[in-house]
Amino acid sequence: MSGEGLPVVSGDEAIKALRRIGYEVVRRKGSHRRLRHSTDLARRPVTVPDHRELKPGTLRAILRDTGLGIEEFKSLLKK
Predict the structure, then answer these.
(1) N or C: fewer beta carbons within 10 Å in the chain?
(2) Which of 21, 12, 10, 29 lies closest to 65 in space, CA to CA?
(3) Global confidence as pTM
(4) Model confidence band, residue 4 (pLDDT cutoffs 50, 70, 90)
């Protein structure tokens, strides 16, 4: 059941989707990128690993921290 309904995405794909809603990369350390929302400081900053495929739990945590639902995230991937 873990990962059910979640798309399989890379770190780059996740970052591109998050940029569409106003997140920007503010720093990079090793294989991780830290993103912060450019205008809404109430949105939590998120760390996205620069991996070929994000694990379901990692993606779920990113979505939780950004306040995005699975379907909303999927629609951002398609743009």
Answers:
(1) N
(2) 21
(3) 0.88
(4) low
